[in-house]
Design goal:
By secondary structure, this protein is an all-alpha fold. It folds into 2 domains: about 20-215, Orthogonal Bundle (Ammonium transporter fold), CATH 1.10.3430.10; about 220-280, no CATH class. Helices cover about 70% and strands about 0% of the residues. The chain starts with a helix and ends with a helix. The model is unreliable at about 25-40, about 250-265 and about 270-283 (pLDDT under 50).
Length: about 280
């Protein structure tokens, strides 16, 4: 009886697999071709298959995304450590910089990926990495707290990508002398970039201004020094904990009994006490 149930289940699985294969073949025979499932994750390729009139739009868009990501990653991992003097004998290639360079390449090529040539995608990614590096220099110079470098990545890459449409577009770009109204087209891109900056600045200043007015903009000083990860999750060692007590001249969190730091101190002492009990019980 059990073997019969297993055989029935296997036949149902085979039938379902055959049905899905036939459905996939029918989609492949349509006039437009669906990109491979893995490439659909690059949303540019997926949207091109729905909205572009070009027959090879998804394939070209995906290739341009990959080329721009490669250009951004290679330029960033080579340029940024040298500009910021972060390269040394034991620290030659920074994986975080490589990943951010890949992302900035994808950000920069998003707005133009279906209307540029592959060589232009490589250039856009490389120049986007230069904008990202310049942004990293600026946040370091002005002391902006951005440990993951999100602002130079998305602002620098996004701004350059918006302007790159007016330069590399294969129908109206500045690099094509026969393109009609190419300067007007580039001007529209510049105007769009300014409009985006104005809108984001207005929304950001309003939102963060309200947070600052109600004293919600920054966390307490002791938590800022400790780090939110430690304050929320615990795990600080005795050396760091003693240094923080020495810095503030008191037990951290004593003046804020309901603060996360005080809660962390209680959890830490309890866990330490439990550890001592376990050690005594094992010995």
């Amino acid at each position: 009886m059990r073997e019969h149930a297993v055989q029935v289940a296997v036949r149902r699985v085979h039938a379902e697999l055959e049905r899905r294969v036939q459905a996939a073949l029918q989609l492949h025979d349509r006039r437009w071709h669906t990109p491979p499932v893995g490439h659909v994750a690059l949303f540019n390729g997926g949207s091109a298959s729905m909205y572009s009139e070009r027959a090879n739009a998804p394939a070209k868009v995906i290739i341009n995304n990959y080329l721009s990501a490669c250009g951004g990653g290679l330029v960033a991992v080579f340029l940024k450590p040298r500009i910021l003097h972060q390269r040394s004998f034991v620290h030659r290639f920074d994986i975080a910089t490589l990943c951010n360079g890949i992302i900035v390449g994808l950000v920069a090529v998003t707005s133009s990926c279906d209307r540029i040539e592959p060589w232009a995608a490589l250039c856009i990614g490389g120049i986007g990495a230069c904008c990202y590096t310049l942004g990293c220099v600026l946040i370091e110079k002005f002391g902006i707290d951005d440990p993951v470098e999100a602002s130079p990545l998305h602002f620098g890459g996004g701004l350059w990508g918006t302007l790159a449409v007016g330069i590399f577009d294969n129908e109206f770009g500045l690099l094509y002398p026969d393109a009609p109204n190419r300067w007007k087209y580039f001007g529209v891109q510049c105007l769009g970039a300014l409009a985006i900056i104005a809108w984001v600045s207005l929304c950001s200043l309003t939102f963060f201004g309200l947070l600052n007015h109600f004293n919600l903009f920054r966390i307490p000083k002791e938590i800022e020094i400790m780090g939110l990860d430690i304050a929320e999750m615990g795990g600080v060692d005795d050396e760091l904990y003693s240094k923080m007590n020495l810095l503030f001249g008191k037990k951290v969190g004593d003046d804020r009994l309901d603060s996360p730091v005080s809660h962390f101190t209680t959890l830490r002492n309890n866990s330490k006490h439990k550890g001592q009990i376990n050690e005594r019980s094992m010995s």
